[in-house]
Design goal:
This protein is of the alpha+beta class. The chain has one domain. It has helices spanning about 5-15, 50-65, 80-85; strands spanning about 20-25, 25, 35-40, 45, 70, 75-80, 85-90. The strands form three sheets. Strands 4-3-7 form a three-stranded antiparallel beta sheet. The protein binds zinc ion (2 copies).
């Protein structure tokens, strides 16, 4: 590899955002982040497809089963999916 190629690799590596998803509280996901999740302004995360859809599915489940979901960080109670989270493609 010549100098130019390695510069290019570093540049690309710098632009690639990794998923911030956790499994059992441990950062273990090495996938590229594809979704930006904004939790009603109290928190944000960049997640891969798998982590984002797992989170959203869980939220939909809570809302349909209990009629509300409580944020684990700020304890805000949401009654609609869109009150709780905004999801934007990175
Ligand atoms: Zn992930
Ligand atoms: Zn919150």
């Amino acid at each position: 590899m010549n100098a130019q190629e390695s510069d290019f690799d570093q540049l690309v590596a710098g632009l690639t955002v990794l998923c911030e998803g956790t499994d059992d509280g441990k950062f273990s996901c090495k996938n590229d982040a594809e979704w930006h999740l904004d939790y009603h302004g109290c928190n944000e995360e960049l997640l891969c497809e798998g982590h984002a859809s797992a989170y959203v599915s869980q939220l939909i489940y809570l809302l349909s089963r209990y009629g509300s979901a409580v944020c684990s960080k700020c304890e805000k109670t949401s009654y609609k999916l869109t009150d709780h989270i905004r999801v934007v493609k990175v």
